[in-house]
Amino acid sequence: MKSFVLNCFATLMAILFSGQLLAESTVWSRTAPVGEVCIEGDPCAEELVMVASAPAPSVQGGAAKVSLSEGSEHEVKMLNMSSAGTMVFEPAVLKVSVGDTIHFKSVDLSHNSASIAGMIPDGASSWSGGMNQDISVTLDTEGVYVYQCDPHAMMAMVGVIQVGNPVNLEAVKSQAGSKKAGFVMNQSRLDDYLSQL
Ligand SMILES: [Cu+2]
Fold it and tell me: What is 61-194's CATH number?
């Protein structure tokens, strides 16, 4: 009986002691400094200096710029899927010369190509292809054109064509803000495309 009482006491002490240790370690971890303090000249301080002096990545280098496509005729496929994602035009970003023709090809079903109002150069002709239809568009006005697939616009199925100089790029970029508010997925896609111009 005596040994039973002693056993109980020992167990109780063990529980209390481990509980206190746990509480202490919790308090310690909460009050411990978030970062370590480095004294100048210490190896850790040199490490910090190296990180701080590393060159910052260039913002310009974030997206590869699209190069001018050769020839005067260009093909853009309307696809359910490519390596760039689902519901995409391919290529989604094109740079061409004034007077070039773009052939939109209905490779997969349920797509079309339609220019977006307010996102083409002033005075340029708009276009709106039928569903599942190839459409060819000749771009005679210099500037940036943004177009979409109507049924998949909310999935950011959009494309960008720069014709000659991007004279209206800032206007298009400001329109892009409200356009992408309607995207339920691929929210950064249009910005990514525009950053390639
Ligand atoms: Cu589509």
Answer: 2.60.40.420
In 3D space, the residue among 54, 101, 100, 109 whose CA is nearest the CA of residue 80 turns out to be 109
Low-confidence ranges of the chain (pLDDT < 50): 1-2, 4-6, 8-36, 38, 44-60
Determine the distance separating the centroid of ligand 1 and the alpha carbon of 80, expressed in angstroms.
7
Å from CA of 173 to ligand 1 middle: 22
CA of 130 to the centre of ligand 1 (A): 11
Q: Are the C-beta atoms of residues 158 and 192 closer than 8 Å to each other?
A: no
Residue 126 CB partners (closer than 8 Å, separation 6+): 114, 115, 117, 120
Residues 65, 195 contacting (CB under 8 angstroms): no
What does pTM read for this prediction? 0.69
Tell me whether the omega of the peptide bond preceding residue 43 falls within 30 degrees of 0, making it cis.
no
Residue ranges covered by each domain of the chain: 2-53, 61-194
What is the reported pLDDT for 63?
Answer: 76
Q: What's the gap in Å between 71 CA and the centre of ligand 1? A: 26
pLDDT tens digits, residue range 52-83?
444 444 444 567 999 999 999 999 999 999 99
Report the separation in Å between the CA atom of 15 and the middle of ligand 1, taken as the mean of its atom positions: 65
Ligand 1 center–CA 183 separation, angstroms: 13
Q: What is the whole-number distance in angstroms between the Cα of residue 88 and the centre of ligand 1?
A: 7
